[in-house]
Amino acid sequence: MKAENRKGCPQRDGVERKEYAGAQSFSARESKERGGANDLLERILERENLNRAYKQVKRNHGAPGIDGMTVEKALLWIRENREELLQSIREGSYKPNPVRRKEIPKPDGGVRKLGIPTVVDRVIQQAIAQKLQPIYEPLFSDGSYGYRPKRSAQQAIQKVKNYTEQGYGYAVEIDLSKYFDTLNHELLLNLLRRQIHDERVTLLIKKYLKSGVMEGGTFTRTEEGSPQGGPLSPLLSNVYLNEFDQEMERRGVKVIRYADDIVVLAKSKRAAGRLLESCRRYLEGKLKLKMNAQKSKVVSVLAIKHFKFLGFCLGKNKKGVYIRAHRESLAKAKRKLRQLTRRNQGRNVRMVMENVKSFIRGWLGYYYVADIKRTLMSWNKWLRRRLRMYIWKQWKKPRTRIMNLKKLGIPEWQAYQWGNTRLGYWRIAGSAVLNRSITNEKLALAGYYDFPAQYEQLRLMHSSG
Fold this sequence. Notes:
disordered N terminus, alpha+beta, about 50% helix
């Protein structure tokens, strides 16, 4: 529906259960069981499926689209307009809103362009994806790991490790230029029609592909691409690149893919060079994509300075091949920790430690498969010193420092000496007097997170599982 035609209404009070009860009445009319291949749209618009889609959109906590409508307000709008909405979708007259453009900075200096649909459009897209996923899941290659249930980046790098142990020592790193923005609509729709025989569904997907982008008040038509940000985009991207996966599989080539991050493996540098060229011909000739010539290259899988996949790399020691966190990933994480513990932010140290804990838990949840124990031990020591420096800065005046040092068990003469010192913050933070007063135990009581121990628990849990 057009954004300007949507009705606003006050947010109603009620517990979450009541909200979902409203979502369950999304479709007042029960769909008739028609059977056959042409009832896919009716199954997408089933009450239970739409209700599940709304819950998922709500869980994702996404931002509003161009209409400014939040998830909560969208539910109220759906309650009032459900019959008109569903009828327009069935008749083919429904017109999705343009997506709202948002640019996210990339580590290499570029930007990742996101397209944020309205909440109502996200619910419909999610409902479509929920019914298409079971259709396509059995058709996807075993080497595809992105945006698939019960598959992860950790499994993808583990698969690369397994192939490396089998002698596949060279990798073709394939970088696709602006992949999500360059999907060919005609080719994608033809691929969809192989499995989707309800033409109403493919036409609805086509409308989402062609819905356009709103940026700075200016509308731009979308003649290609599937903007990242909508629930349907990940599935469509997998359907598109599944053609490449299947072609390589037919040729007996080892391919590991996570969304548009692709690694093709070979046993020799010469074979990898041939694969680089054959992959380029297929991706650019058959799928009408563009390979980045500068970033797509042949590297040794065990060359730590060169090979990188999903933030990981591989190493080798006496015990064999092992997974590492790439040095760029480690450097980025340490920069974030440095930012979180900068001493001029004026927050209570307990809040700082809570923010550090939140970041490290998420980071370890991704990198637990990597052998990073020594790195974490080093970070642990460094972070404690950073926090001692933070506390020392907060004490500010010599009188406050002397008083607090005495409270923490430092003799009066020594407390007076250090309370009036002119040494720099970092040097004082590493001093014996602060290590004896602000001990590791006291930091733990204040909320310091013992992340090396958590890392070991994660490793143990996943190895036993």
